Structure formats: C-alpha cells, structure tokens
Amino acid sequence: xxxxxxxxxxxxxxxxxxxxxxxxEPLADARAKAGFLQVRTVDMAADDAALRRxxxxxxxxxxxxxxxxxxxxxxGFFLEVExxxxxxxxxESLVADLSARLKNFGLPARLAIAATPGAAWALxxxxxxxxxxxxxxxxxxxxxxxxxxALRLAPDTCAALRRxxxxxxxxxxxxxxxxxxxxxxxxxxxxxxQALGRIDEPLVPVVMxxxxxxxxxxxxxxxxxxxxxxxxxxxxxxxxxxxxRDGVGARALKLSLYRVDGEVKTLHIGLTLPTRSxxxxxxxxxxxxxxxxxxxxxxxxxxxxxxAITRAEPMPARQAELPSAAGDADRTEQWAALIDALRQRLGxxxxxxxxxxxxxxxxxxxxxxxxxxxxxxxxxxxPLSAEDETQSRPLLLLPHAEPAExxxxxxxxxxxxxxSWRGVTHEVKGAQGPxxxxxxxxxxxxxxxxxxxxxxxxxxxxxxxxxxxxxxxRETREAHWFxxxxxx
Length: 488
Description:
With about 500 residues, the protein is of the alpha+beta class. It is about 30% helix and about 25% strand.
C-alpha cells in the first residue's frame, strides 16, 4: 500500500502476524523483522470485487448484507440477522455455521453479533474472543476496554486522542462532549453514539433487499436443472399466497443459486405484466436456465436456492369464471406470456416494440424499444379506416428509401405510370395521392426537398408506396422517385 514515507503493509497472513508484523507498518521495518518476507502490490479493485461476491453469498443468511466502507478497511461486511437468526436455530448456531463455511473457503473470520453495527464491528476487530455475541444494552460495558480505534475513526484522529491521553473507548464515555466537538470533527461523537445505539446507522446493502423473498436450504446439494426448476416452482407457490394477500403481482424476479464452494449464480427475470402464476414463472425460469446455461458449471452442487421478487406492481382481482367477461384479459395474458417466453429465450433487449414519435416523416415516426410493458389496443380506440387511403401507411417500411428507375409519368408532377425497382419493371394500374410531406425545418438546419407520396398498384396486384422528391419547377427541374414501403 503506497503512502507517505514509503510503502506500508495493507494485509497480513497468519505467518506474517506470527513474525510480529502489523497492519500499516512501513515495509522497510517489516523487512528488517522478517528477511524472508514476500510482498505483493495490493489490488483494491480486485479486493472490493471479491468482498462483494462474498457478501452476495452471505445473503443466504439474510437479504441485508453490507460490505464495510474502504475508510475502515474493506475486509468484512455487516449482516442484519435480527429477523433470520431463528431460521438457523438461534444466533449461536448461525455464527457457528457461518464460521465453519468461511473456514472451508480458506477464510478464517472473526465474527460478532451486537445490537448496533458499530459495536459488532468493534468486537469483531478488537475483542479477545474470535466469536462473540453481545446481549442488547451492554454496548458501553463491552466497548469500554477496547482501544479508540474500535470506533472506526481516521488514523490521525486516533493518534490525536492518544496524545491527549484517551487510549480506550471507556476514557471517552463520561467526558464532556463540548471539548471533543470543538477540537475534532463531528464524526468522533457520531461514531460513539452509533456504537452505543443513541443514533441509527443506516447500512447500504450489496443488493436492495426484496419485499418478497423465499429461501430453501437443502440437506443435500442438487446439480440438475430439473431439480432447480422444481424447487423454484415451490418457492413461487409460497410467494404467490403473499402476493394474493397484498393484491400485487411480480414484474421482476431474481433466482439465486448458492453453490457449495461459495459461488453465487443469479438469474434476473423480467415480466411484461404482473403475475402470480407459479406455472408461468416456472416456465420462464426453465427458459432462462436453458439460455444462460447457469447449471452447466455447478461445482459440488447448489446447497441453497432463493427466489426474490425485486419488483411488484398492483394486480387487481378480476372475474375469471365468465369467459365473456374475461376474454380480453385472457388474450392480453396470452400475448404477455408469449413476449415473456421470447425475452427469456432470445434476451430481454432483442424483443422490441414500435413506439410512436411526434414526427410526420415516415422514417422518424416510429422507433424500436425493448418491450417493458404490453398495452393492448383498447376497444375504445378508434379503428383504422381502410377507406382513408391518403393517410395509410405500408405494412413494410424500408429502412432507407430506395431509388426507382425509368419512371414514366403523364405530367412531371403527376403519379407514375411505369417504374423499375430492384431490376423489375412495374406497370402501374392505379394510383392514389399525392400526400405531401414537407421537411421538418425546426430539426434540420439544412432544408430538404418536399416529398409527394403515392400509393400505386401494378398490374400484378402489388402495391407500393413511392414518393417524388422535390416540387417540380420550384425545388427541382428533374423528378427523382423513391420506393419507401410495400403494402400487403
């Protein structure tokens, strides 16, 4: 770790600690103590990523896992276990299970449970026992003998406190607060109050805890995709009852697969409409597993499976027994189910929909956007008129208008009678138009020619959408024709 005065030690293994080396010690002094010392440059980004993965794995114990901030050494994380410790037989059993699993990963850890994050951090760092559980209300008594560094203060603040004779937390507890507030930053008293539970300390979880979450701990690990899908279906059935009670449906879900070796695989599933159907969610999970191949590399298997609803939306009840009343809703759900299946198989951003844009130029009037919601046409929407041909648009709009060659017209500004396109000559039997579309001068500083669009039908019954570029006699002296779309 680079610093003023030369490199310093940022982390130690057991052999280095046994040799008497300490965190923050200059590297030159450490080499003098241990000539066999081996050092590596610290990679903070890799350390942070590894800690985040470990914290994500720890969500098997609780949805709220928060890595420590870098200022205090990003080498641990907080777990909010107040509502989940009973699932493991109590706090003692949870600590024993967590310690054993971390040790199997080659990560011996110091663990502490307390009523406040500050007290737990202090005990995990400075308590004599590697594992400790502090009953609520005993924070001041437990913190008193610990050094001032247990308050998660900056090194210069700790050094200043020691120069003034305050070497332990207990030396600060009964002293007047005003001198500390005048001499030190507000963080000193805030950290003290947070550790004692006088003020709250919000934690930033590694992922936002879901409102609806279900976990299944397995006696024996599973390795097959069929077993994963079956368990996920049971978890969704459990969540469906809660969703019905709250009148909401799932719009986004996250499937978490916890491997025995500590790796966590997560699959995010988005839905077009809110749903409570376990069968529909199970089908999407199966498709997502096929596309992601998440169960190809299972290591020693998955020991825990979690299903969380990361986004829920209101889902009002409806009458499902009467087909005439539920017909429209059934069709909407069928369309949504098809879109969901395509999104899981092809990818969420490969299934797109057309969205209208406030522009009268055909190539700008629509854009393709990823499908996030499905909104079918309402019965109250005015239907498209097949008789209003002047405003009709082709079923296929070409990405770019293509030039038409050998165009023959009776008058220069009249409809075409014959044209060639893509090497084929078409004799025009009938034409409707023109529909004049001018340039959007407020968007393009350089003016562009006006277009006159015609819907034409050739002798074989093929229908085209052509336009003549430029007003004859004012914007151009020679007509230029383009094919812009095809009708059915």
